Amino acid sequence: MSGILSHPGPRPGILSDGARLLRSGLATGGVATTNEQFAAWLARCEETVRARVERVPLAELKGWHFTEGYGVLAHDSGKFFSVEGMDITRTGPRTLSWQQPLINQPEVGILGLLAKEFDGVLHFLMQAKVEPGNRRQLQLSPTVQATRSNYTKVHGGASTPYLEHFLPAGRGRVVADVLQSEQGTWFLGKRNRNMVVETTAEVPVRDSFCWLTYGQIRRLMTEPNLINMDSRTVLACLPMAVSGWPEDLVDDAPDPVYAAGLRRSFQAGGTDGRHTDVEILSWLNDVRTETELRVDRVPLSALRDWRVSDEEIAHREGKHFKVIGVSVESGRREVAAWSQPLLAPCDTGVVAFLTAHVDGVPHILMRASVEPGFRDVVELGPTVQCNPLNYADAPPERRPPFLDHVLAATGTVRYDVVLSEEGGRFHHAECRYLVVECDDPETLQPPPDFRWMTVRQVLALRQHPNYLNVQTRSLLACLGSLW
User: Does residue 170 have a pLDDT over 70?
Assistant: First the structure.
């Protein structure tokens, strides 16, 4: 069948069947950069690419101000982003209402990954970048990771390196290009342009940049807090081949049997899953049609259950998150010093896929996630996506479905790594990313807002906006370390 969930047939041109990406995925020892050279480069970067981050009161942030009566926390230029109060009402199958701060950043930023072949193997130019909110300061980011305010130099600083490769005048061959959402529980309608562009030109490599194969990157996905969120969401948008998977890609996996199952699920046809492609899309449209989400701005000072002061914005029960201020000094950024607010979660989150053989084919249990910051109300989220501390005193019926199943590790844990969220807006925001294989999916009894989907059905949506949330895209990138 044809349609949004179907794979396109082979066509001439770059990565038309994903074969070169698979070849790059096999090159785990490196080509342009050996693993030993990478380790030495990373060690040098961790010594030299650093930032000094100090917490300061919100009222003392240079270049930022509260509007009258603590209405909005905004940048003096009117650019970058603001922190605003929102009154949220969700109606439909479930009716909920609450208030919270959200980051309003209407600009579309660029998350760009530059690709180039070396000795016939595709490589990606990764950046060792420090973000003020990172617990592990230096992480591997895409080649370009910049808001529009940054790359148009509203800050008055230096130009963004390699930006020309992602602008129309200097752009090479486009491999992937899709507008994708970010955290819908923390951002209001935030989107970034996720791009992969291949060049054949000579590219001078700056000190804090390094060419790596996809195989090297997917292996590094098992390192805590090393591959940053922006890299993961771009990597998740890469095209993959439906057929022609080398056996080595499975044989070399941590668990070849499980990897072989993932490959079968990736190659499954439109009628091989528990639900057909049309049924999946119809279910999502049902949820979007039946659910109404109203988000109205209110002054920060009017938010129920939140305290707003010159020092910080915080929930009265210590749940959810705070908004804090930081002062930053870094000699390796476009601007050497600046101040900004950061959203600081109250605890480590949990983001998990439950996988299981359904009708003989491995499936992922996906959730129709309704988040106030989504432009289209609903996107596909992982099986579990929450901060457990927010539900510590909640009765069983009010705890997120399958959270206890995942925390109890009922089944085989295939992936379990703590990874950070975006350090440019969030302070020490980390989630425990898990892939847990369930032995008996029939015992789970998913609620109506969950569906079992094949890996192919999930991956087929990654090149379209407003279908997969950022946590799902991160976990899809993590799956690459399992095959």
Answer: yes
CA distances from 100 to 2, 296, 305, 344 (A): 42, 11, 8, 14
Strands (E), 46-81: 52-56, 64-66, 72-75
**CA 2 to CA 241: how far, in whole Å?**
17
Assigned token pair, 444: 């789970």
d(CA 467, CA 470): 10
Beta-sheet pairing, 191-198 with 109-118: parallel
Q: What b/e readout covers 3-18, taking b as 16+ CB neighbours within 10 angstroms? A: eebebeeeeeebbebb
For residue 2, what pLDDT band results from cuts at 50, 70 and 90? Answer: very low
Report whether 50 contacts 290 (CB < 8 A): no
Asked whether residue 154 carries a pLDDT value surpassing 90, the answer given is no
Q: How far apart are the first and last CA of the chain?
A: 27
Bridge partners of residue 354, in order along the sequence: 436
**Of 120, 125, 119, residue with least CA distance to 140:** 125
Cβ count near 307 (within 10 Å): 13
Does 8 score more than 90 pLDDT?
no
Are 235 and 463 in contact by the 8 Å Cβ rule? The answer is no
Please compute, for residue 286, the number of CA atoms within 13 A of its CA located in the half-sphere on the CB side: 12
The tokens describing 433, both together, are: 């990313």
Closest CA to 404 of 418, 384, 390: 384
Work out the average pLDDT over 211-224.
Answer: 96
Average pLDDT, the chain: 90
In the chain, the amino acid numbered 219 is R
In the predicted structure, residue 359 carries a pLDDT above the cut 70: yes
Element (H, E) at 156: none
* Separation of alpha carbons 209 and 190, rounded Å: 27
The residue with tokens 């844990």 is: 413
**DSSP result, 274-303:** SS-HHHHHHHHHHHHHH-EEEEEEE-GGG-
Sign of CA dihedral 36, 38, 41, 42: negative
Amino acid at 119: D
Computed over its alpha carbons, how large is the radius of gyration of the chain? 22
Amino acid at position 279, single letter: E
Residue 187 DSSP label:
B
82, 362 in Cβ contact below 8 A? no
* 386, 454, 288, 425 alpha-carbon torsion, rounded to 10°: 40
Q: Which range, of 77-81, 163-167, 239-243, 291-295, averages the lowest pLDDT?
A: 239-243
Amino acid (1-letter code) at residue 384: V
